[in-house]
Design brief:
This protein has 453 residues and is α+β, with helices and mostly antiparallel strands. It has two domains: 3-161, Creatinase/prolidase N-terminal domain (Creatine Amidinohydrolase, Chain A, domain 1, 3-Layer(aba) Sandwich), CATH 3.40.350.10; 167-443, Creatine Amidinohydrolase. It is 34% helix and 13% strand. It has 14 helices and 15 strands. The chain has a five-stranded mixed sheet, with no helix packed on it. The protein has a three-stranded antiparallel sheet with strand order 6-7-10, with helices on both faces. The protein is globular and about 75 Å long.
Length: 453
């Protein structure tokens, strides 16, 4: 199906969903102004951080720019109000490709100060305007009362519904995944050639033809022991002061891309041929485990139960790999698997890498908190059709967590000589992006999405 047709259907569905949300929240006669956001400057500086538009705005307009607005009114074509100042310091050109621009009534403004007049020209009364987005002061200048700015009931409803992706959104997520895989392949080749973390990261960027600021998140490019740092933030490089390159044994790379602002989130762990045999066997075991968890996905399955199943399978892998002794039931009961896998199994994926609504039990604002033993689990909802989420089990050798076990009452259940041998190799994470479609579960990372599907 052509992108323009997909986007048109997406906008039509959006209009129905938003009008339904307004009706359920008792404000069906209100207009809604959605703000992309504003630049935020570093403290005592005149340079701003990287801008990222708000997800609820980006679901309408696939342009990541500050001071852009969408106006929604029942019975009217959505209005796009981009602020395009006469600015000779920065490029203010805005591409308006037909495939998405044709869905909007576009009214450019020279400044945010012109917004009030644009709303009056559109016949929008201040007492019937809902403002969504940051900058409550701006909302106040438009005449909005406090209860008209980001009403929690409406936002909760919208956050919950964002888990359900349109066909257009799924194709964007699939394209983001395909682009990221190009980078992952280049990163793998650079790793095998002996590149440092910086070189591997740059190989990824070059293959995807993106800038750091265009990535959905800061790539994790972790060699060896750095793979045990879950959100490792550096890209270490060799300099003239380093006379010997480190021995590249294991690469853990967590890297995604964006496509029309929709994100992919993919992790792979690679071993060099000379890596310790027990670690290579663990990697093979985790690859099998990850695919087995994907095979368990069904509509109606609780994400919490899927997370618990992951720990049960991990417990058996720890025993089969001689990392732990006893039974899988013992390891689970004593919380030993949590030292090897301290993060959640996955999260909703969309316009944000960790997309909103993962712990909402319903669209009315009731929460489903994670179990006390798994406080970091980001998604507690039941799996449903049209959802996209990650599945990312891991197995790590994290000193601070293992040291607590080493000095505890259950130390005898762990094979410390083998663990000590594997500590310098960091850890393993395998992460795919999963879509639950009308024909069943589709792994967007392993199987490209074809046009028309």
């Amino acid at each position: 199906m052509h992108t323009e047709s997909l986007f048109k259907d997406h906008i039509n569905q959006q209009q129905r969903e938003w009008m339904d949300a307004l009706d359920r929240c008792g404000c069906a006669d209100h207009a809604v102004l959605i703000y992309s956001g504003k630049l935020h400057y570093h403290f005592a500086d005149d340079h701003a951080g990287t801008f990222r538009a708000w997800g609820h705005f980006l679901r309408w307009i696939p342009v990541d720019r500050p001071d852009f607005f969408v106006l929604l009114r029942a019975g009217h074509t959505p209005q796009f109000l981009p602020v395009l100042p006469n600015d000779y310091w920065h490029d203010q050109h805005l591409d308006l490709p037909e495939w998405w621009a044709s869905a909007f009534d576009i009214r450019p403004l020279l400044s945010v100060a012109d917004l009030g007049k644009a709303l009056r020209d559109a016949g929008v009364r201040a007492d019937q305007l809902i403002f969504l987005g940051e900058d409550e002061q701006l909302a106040a200048t438009l005449g909005c009362n406090t209860d008209q700015v980001n009403p929690p009931k409406l936002l909760t409803w919208l956050d919950y519904q964002r888990a359900y992706k349109t066909d257009y959104e799924v194709h964007c997520l699939a394209d983001a995944s395909a682009l990221a895989l190009t980078g992952h392949q280049a990163a793998h080749e650079c790793f095998l050639a002996g590149g440092d973390e910086y070189a591997i990261h740059m190989a990824y960027l070059q293959a995807c033809r993106v800038l750091d600021s265009e990535l959905p998140y800061n790539n994790i490019v972790a060699l060896n022991a750095n793979g045990a740092i879950l959100h490792y933030q550096h890209k270490k490089r060799f300099t003239a002061t380093h006379t010997h390159k480190p021995d590249n044994q294991v690469l853990l790379i967590d890297a995604g891309c964006r496509w029309h602002s929709y994100c992919s989130d993919i992790t792979r762990t690679w071993c060099a041929p000379h890596t310790q045999a027990d670690f290579q066997a663990l990697l093979a075991g985790m690859q099998t485990l990850q695919l087995a968890i994907v095979d368990e996905i069904r509509v109606g399955t609780s994400f919490v139960e899927l997370h618990k199943l992951t720990h049960a399978k991990l417990a058996q892998l720890l025993i089969d790999s001689r990392l732990c002794f006893g039974s899988a039931e013992q390891l689970l009961a004593k919380g030993i698997t949590r030292a090897f896998l301290p993060h959640g199994l996955g999260h909703l994926l969309g316009l944000q890498v960790h997309d909103v609504g993962g712990r909402l039990a319903d669209p009315y604002g009731n929460f489903a908190p994670p179990p006390p033993e798994f406080p970091t689990l980001r998604t507690t909802r039941a799996i449903d059709e049209r959802m996209v989420f990650t599945i990312e089990p891991g197995l790590y050798f994290i000193p601070v967590l293992l040291d607590a076990l080493r000095s505890g009452a259950d130390a005898g259940l762990l094979n410390w000589p083998l663990i000590n041998e594997l500590l310098p190799l960091g850890g393993i994470r395998i992460e795919d992006n999963i879509w639950v479609g009308p024909q069943g579960v589709h792994n967007l990372t392993r199987r490209p999405l074809m046009q028309g599907s």
